[in-house]
Amino acid sequence: MNIRNKSITVLGLGKSGFAAAKLAKKMGADVFASDNSTSDDIKKNKDILTGIGIDVEIDGHSDRVYKNKKLIILSPGIPPDIPILCKAKEENIKAVSEIEFASWFSLAKIIAITGTNGKTTTTILIKNILKEAGYNAVVAGNIGTALSEKVESLSKSDIVVAEISSFQLETITKFRPFISLVLNITPDHLDRYKNMTNYIHAKSMIFKNQTTENFTILNYDDPVVSEFENTTKARVSLFSRKTQECNAFIKDEKMFMRSYAKEKEICGVNELKIKSRHNLENMLATICVAAIFKVDPATIKSTLTKFVGFPHKTEFVNKINNVTFINDSKATNVDATKAAIENTKAPIILIMGGVHKGGSYIYLEQLVKNKVKHLVVMGKARDIIKKDIGELVPLTYVYSMDDAVEKAFSLANPNDTILLSPACSSFDMFKNYIERGNLFKKAVNTLKSRIEHA
Hints:
It is built from 16 helices and 20 strands. By secondary structure, the protein is α/β, with parallel strands linked by helices.
């Protein structure tokens, strides 16, 4: 799309907005950028953008956001119904997401992955398999680098593997990935969406513009996701842990793909280094993508069996006096914490809390009863957590990560597990889930050093 000499606003100057502003400037647009923050990172980005001739305001959004503008590009953290955007809508100014904007300039095929949980794992697995098969595959989107940062360097032979959040999908208009992939949908972000129907609709936007030339990969075991088979226009590929009549499936404790009606064995489940329910589904989804690109089973097996997971996702941190510490800071919703508890050895002392995202913690009731001996709770959501599950086991409030680790360890016996799995976002006390996880690891290692040198 030609944006040369058009007046464009970029709203939000985090990673995505910063990259979009630079791209729009390179494409010849008259760019104005606005952010309501005055953090050090935003001030730094403002200075860089001002230095290349972009007009920037921070510490609030003025009417300049929409006055005499042709387009507004939104960073994913900005809800589309804030007052300044409502005014823009009244003036018929179109607002699109950064992922939509960047896709206008991409020559590469895009594989777009969404879902409540497992997006990062699946994105990296797909990239790894395609690279091992000889493709030039790069990661962009919600992890790593914003797509706006990448598009200029991409050719038709390249492949973008993009993790896409529901926030990024809310304001797409023409975004049409070669492959869309929906892993699962469970309650999340209900602080942003009025109800599950709205959240599901946002997720479904990933295949909105696809045609019969494209592919949609769906989790057959997820009742919400499997229904998308009836609404996408793309060719559908299904994966399942439970049903063998799919394109990727498990049979006799082995993973298979079905290609041109033929079953091809990939590897045994026992050969995988991580084999939780969510990770098996992530790998089956990855196999579906590999099949579309005609990757041979040996290459798929090589990648899957080498995979050991990521920091902040059920990550082993340390052992102190035979008490195991696990960092699952990336669990920002209830379903992710449920999976972590399922795959953690009991007895568990569970550290939870942060910013409530709208899902009910009652969903954890049976697991907490069966596997958790004590809840250590922090952050804004602490009273909601106490109300939902605080009567099931003893509960203690804490007010810092150091206190959480110290308190949890004081409650632990040998062979217990201390699990940080917050079921909440991190933004009340931490910059992001990465900082939260790193501070947990630092507190654990400091505690171990102090005990060893006592």
